[in-house]
Amino acid sequence: MAAGPRATADTAPAAGAGEVEGEHIKPFTPEKAKEIIMSLQQPAIFCNMAVDWPAQHWTAEHLSEVLHGKQIRFRMGMKRTDTVPQFETTCGYVEATLEEFLTWNCDQSPLSGPFRDYDHSKFWAYADYKYFVSLFDDKTDIFEGVIWSDFGFPGRNGRESTLWIGSMGAHTPCHLDSYGCNLVFQVQGRKRWHLFPPEDTPFLYPTRIPYEESSVFSKINVVNPDLKRFPRFCKARRHMVTLNPGQVLFVPRHWWHYVESIDPVTVSINSWIELVEETSHEVNCRYLNRAVSALFDYYRTSKVVEVQAMRTNREHMKKEGLNVHNHMEMEQTGSQDLSLGVVKQEAASLFGPDLVPVILTSEELPSKTGSIFEGDGKDFVGEDGEHSGKLHCTKRQRMMSKSEDAIVEQNASNSNMAPSQTLISTDDLLDCLLNPQVTRIVAQLLIQGRSLWF
What angle do CA 250, 154, 11 make, to 5 degrees? Predict the structure, then answer.
């Protein structure tokens, strides 16, 4: 299931890319790549952005020579398909060199050595979460092989990265990262990603057992779910893609993901990034006043909807908010556009051979008798990078659409509820937020928000 073509020297650059004669031209400048990342709300694959990275040519064999007999901890799991996730706490562990791993992975089950108790036909091995700073502590020059600065993060390289090396079938259970977003550079072999949006959290039955500070796990084996025990999983919206060597996958904050190695040996490099948009005091105040203005407009033009109605029609509310935002944008003038909505639209317009969105898959359930989603996935993303399949409106979506239409038909009857509009300063905001009564109200809204969105 290829997500897009590889780069060639004569590939035509996208808008914004610099031109250097005789060199590979990357489709996005670092500034443009970061702008896209800051605005993307869905996973997407960057192609042709790492063509000149030294890490592009790394293999497990090459890394074995670089590490020169250094022992690594491998997680050992069973090659089986049941309905229970294989959490890290239920796996075995082996201390071995990459050379020993490669020998075992060639189906040469040793009679002695660290892998002697693990039949290759029944087990997979995964060297995961290996931080470069610990793994290559005496070979720091290898950090320069990874150039995250190409994505608009100056100075970031292998030092802020982790290495993942696995055999076929090695995987991480479905989870979300509790902080930051994720950039993943696929080096060798292919990995299949199953992703679910944050809004689907209640359908994935989250748990903090086993506890891991940076992860929230799902109770479900998403490739072979027990639908009798977890019936709400039927509503989860699966986005699936196969990441090929040379491609970089962007995983937005709090997107759930299950990742599986589907080739004999896979090597990938991850970097977690906290996206903090730096803005001036003046810009922050303008954002604040826009939000207040949107609230006033909402009170003037819409009826306050009860929490229960909002829960069943949350998509309608998102559309209403977008309409208000667009209306405000048309009235605003000036040289600087501060609209996040416009930035998102610009990012969407950049989708193409060099930036491929990870799209919603068919809602067919996986087979319990074999590998999930058999096939090469060409019905999702074709070899030329274009989408060749069609997304069908599900019964659930049609039902939601009908309920949304019913809300739209309601007449606004509480226009007098809107307070008088005034500009708000930062000091006003702080005085308000520090008021104990406001703190109590915010706490109540947070509790209601849980039932509203989840």
Answer: 60
